[in-house]
Design goal:
334 residues; alpha+beta
Length: 334
């Protein structure tokens, strides 16, 4: 299916100074360490600016890297709303076939909320250790790596934690993530074809590997901005949106810079402004509740803090407090 177009508007009609958008584009052009691929800006529910840098196009799926995690968390939130999973269930309870193997008390005490918030009690990413312990079942390998700290007490960006969250949603629903999300999220949002890389057993990775368009990123951000409601239909529990987008665990002292120090929710990072889904090399889903705005980017850069800095420097000041009416000489076709 093809996506229904998002409502569009001139920037000025939604209280956005187009000269700030143009300044952001100029700054990108002058940033030698940032290769932009796409940009979409939504304000008050309207698409006010969008663009793609060749060879990228609106229809071309893009590897979202760790924004995949935000889609996984959304699946978990919908599953929680349907009563398929519960945040305070032990993770091991979803994998009874592993009961005899997992003897470490901290691994057994790990709850769904802990793998959702990167607070499994591990101090580093366990992906290599987990694969070393079990090359066929990353969940088993992950649970066999003893956490040195109690779950819920320390943050570590830990890929198998998200893989495990994805696996338990797939286990509880009896479906793949994309199969589960298609009628509950993707179709209602108007998101067309997506593809998700799988492990050897056929389970979608959850922590990365999702290929989707920039438009899909923007729509996910808009759904969270609206508290889980899309076109009058509730797709996700309001309580899940609130929990996912507030700090569940401190990240002080971790990450790449200031925007990685402000806490982690359920697969969303807290930012200096709002919160965001965050994928390697400049894939961002920035949600700005105080400005009623969503900014979606795809890119190729090792300097992700620099890309966010340009957003704060140019796009944030362009957001006026209230919507305006009419056009203006600063409006531009972007």
């Amino acid at each position: 299916m093809s996506a229904r177009p998002l409502p569009s508007s001139s920037p000025a009609a939604q209280g956005v100074d187009a000269s700030g958008v143009l300044a952001f584009l100029d700054a990108l052009d002058n940033a030698p360490d940032i290769e932009p691929h796409s940009l979409m800006i939504l304000r008050h529910g309207h698409l006010v600016a969008s663009g793609w840098w060749a060879p990228y196009t609106p229809e071309r799926p893009h590897l979202l890297y760790s924004i995949s995690k935000s889609f996984t968390a959304t699946a978990a939130g919908i599953a929680a709303g349907e009563g398929l999973i519960r945040l305070d269930d032990p993770v091991i309870s979803y994998f009874p076939e592993l009961e005899a193997d997992i003897t470490d008390p901290r691994s057994r005490a790990m709850l769904v909320r802990h793998v959702a918030s990167m607070a499994s009690g591990h101090e580093t990413d366990t992906v290599f250790a987990a694969r070393e312990l079990d090359r066929e079942d990353l969940v088993r390998g992950f649970l066999l790596v003893p956490p040195p700290r109690d779950p819920g007490t320390v943050f570590a960006y830990n890929q198998p934690a998200t893989f495990t969250l994805a696996a338990l949603v797939q286990r509880a629903s009896g479906q793949s993530l994309t199969g589960y999300l298609r009628p509950r999220l993707l179709d209602p949002l108007g998101i067309g074809e997506v593809a998700w890389l799988c492990d050897r057993s056929g389970r979608e990775l959850g922590f990365s590997g999702l290929h989707a368009t920039t438009d899909a990123i923007a729509r996910l951000g808009q759904l969270y901005l609206r508290g889980g409601v899309w076109e009058g239909e509730r797709l996700m529990p309001e309580w899940w949106v609130a929990e996912a987008t507030r700090p569940q665990i401190s990240t002080a002292g971790d990450g790449l810079g200031n925007d990685w120090q402000r806490g982690y929710g359920f697969k969303f990072w807290m930012s200096r402004h709002g919160y965001r889904g965050d994928g390697a090399f400049g894939q961002f889903c920035v949600v700005l509740p105080e400005h009623d705005a969503v900014i979606a980017t795809t890119a190729d850069t090792w300097h992700m803090p620099g890309l966010l800095d340009l957003v704060w420097e140019h796009l944030l000041p362009a957001m006026r407090p209230a919507p305006l009416t009419g056009g203006g000489e600063a409006d531009a076709a972007l």
